[in-house]
Amino acid sequence: MSDPKSNAAANAAALIAAKQAEIRAKLAKFQEQQKGGTFSTTTTTRPTPTPTSSSTRPNYSRIGNNQRINTHNGGSNATDSDLIQQKIAEAKARLAKNITNISSTSTTTTPPSVPSQPRATAKGIYVPDAKGRVSTPQVGLDATGSIDLQAMLSSIPKREVATAKANQRQKKDTTPASGIIMKGRYDKTKNPYLDESIETKSLIPMKRKPRQLKFVQPGKFIEKANKERKHAQLEKLKQEIAENVKKAGMETELDISDKALKKEPGPLAEWWDVPFLPNKDYADMDITPVKPEELDQLVTLYVHHPIPIKPPSEQNNVPVVRSLMLTKKERKKLRRQRRHETQKEKQDKIRLGLLPPDPPKVKISNLMQVLGQEAIQDPTKIEARVRKEMAQRQKQHELTNEQRKLTPEERRQKTKSKLEEDKKQSNEVAVFKVKNCAHPKHRYKIEVNAQQLALTGIVIVHPKCHLVIVEGGPKSIKAFKKLMLRRIDWNDMPTPKNENGTSKTTDMMDIDRFNVGGEENKCYIVWEGQVKSKAFRKFTWRAFDSEKMAREELSKWNAENYWDAATAITEEALAARQPEI
């Protein structure tokens, strides 16, 4: 073991030599700067630092290029050398003092203590040995031979600062986790793509765990193959069904999923047989005797009809959407737009050369603007030609209109088709009550209009009540209502005449027979509405003297309720509820 005194002396000698070398280098640098520049004449007196104060030690390690050194006697070299000698003497005195302290502490016996951490002071860094004794300060030098202050600062231990209680409780565990691998385990030269920051246990190649032997049970793969065959057969069956359905035009209506193919088992007994079975099961049908008296109560004359179901091809048919009903102004606007588009298309074809251009439409009013010089040369000839063209255009226009007109047969067919379409909408019924409609003029109007409007029904002529029943479409009934309630003047009953101009006395006797007391003749609507089906096949006219015969005639067509409603209500009540036509 080396002597502490010899170690201290060696360290002191090394420190002195380093200081001397540093001071000489700075002095030489300063002298070179002094030769190159001129100092100011102004001098400043600087007191010499006392050697007793260790905390006010001057720092000679930094001397700038433009820094001026103030001296006592005009900056002479003698003063600088004296200052250097003074610094060397101070360092020797401190070294001797430290050696004396070390020798005094080594003679006294102290119990062994734990080595403390290195202590840094202004004089240097004191490093304790294994026995806790503090040696001389160890000073590090950099590459230039000066003191390495950065190394001295990094070796100074930092003071622990107290934190809050919450931070003290949440101290992080500095011990590495079991799953984390220490960095540097792998060589990056071998794997340059290895990221050590995410190096975990998962990167270690794991060994395969030993497994026990497992023997395949006999028939396992046979069962698996059978399942695959069944699945293939099912897919093939579904494909065949889809192709057949597609041929029938019902590809979007049928469900060919697995649920549709797998049918549920049927019930133990059908619902229509349940009342006849004692235990609601076909198994007991032969065992239990059947009682005839019970069957008579269950069997009736009514037939149960199942609910009709639409075929799959008609279930989701899109209903026919009727065209929007437009006003007269809107129809004119659409017609004008269509004509404009047609004319524009024709003009485009003429520009492209697909059609020849139309001849100019010359009139007397624009004769001079269109023809110009040609009209001035021979105006009589030009006027005759223009009038001829005008007449030809008028004739062509009338001919086109005549060709566009429908023939009488086509008009009748068009009217008939409209009436047939009107009938398909709904079956409307209207019942009228007239005081007297036996006049030939009124009878002719009623029969002809009913025939023209394709109406069915009957007219009952009776002294108590003249009843008119008509059936047809909504438009036909609406037109017949206007005829009965507004167009016919029921009080206009002129005397009927023969072909030779003489009056028919027999017809007048019939009219007077139904005319009660010369009262005002009126027509009222008793009822109007929709029915499920028509009761009459054609429009007829019947006259009866008794009410019973009239009711029996209507009962043949299941329309006696109309007679009851017309005879039961009074004229005042009918007049109060008449609609406005």
UniProtKB/TrEMBL annotation:
GO terms, biological process: mRNA splicing, via spliceosome
Bias type Basic and acidic residues, positions: 340-351
Biased composition (Polar residues): 62-79
Keyword presence, Endoplasmic reticulum: no
Stored InterPro entries: Pre-mRNA_splic_Prp3_dom, Prp3, Prp3_C
Superkingdom of the source species: Eukaryota
Main subcellular location: nucleus
Domain Pre-mRNA-splicing factor: 191-407
Chain ranges of the Small nuclear ribonucleoprotein Prp3 C-terminal domain: 430-566
Keywords: mRNA processing, mRNA splicing, Nucleus
The species this protein was found in: Circinella minor
Stretches with biased composition (Basic residues): 329-339
A matching Pfam family: Prp3_C
Signal sequence interval, chain numbering: none
Segments of skewed composition (Low complexity): 40-58
Transmembrane helix keyword on record: no
Intracellular or extracellular location(s): Nucleus
PANTHER family named among the record's database cross-references: U4/U6-ASSOCIATED RNA SPLICING FACTOR-RELATED, U4_U6 SMALL NUCLEAR RIBONUCLEOPROTEIN PRP3
GO cellular component, one term: U4/U6 x U5 tri-snRNP complex
Residue segments, region Disordered: 31-79, 328-358, 387-425
Matches recorded under CDD domains: Prp3_C
Protein name: Uncharacterized protein
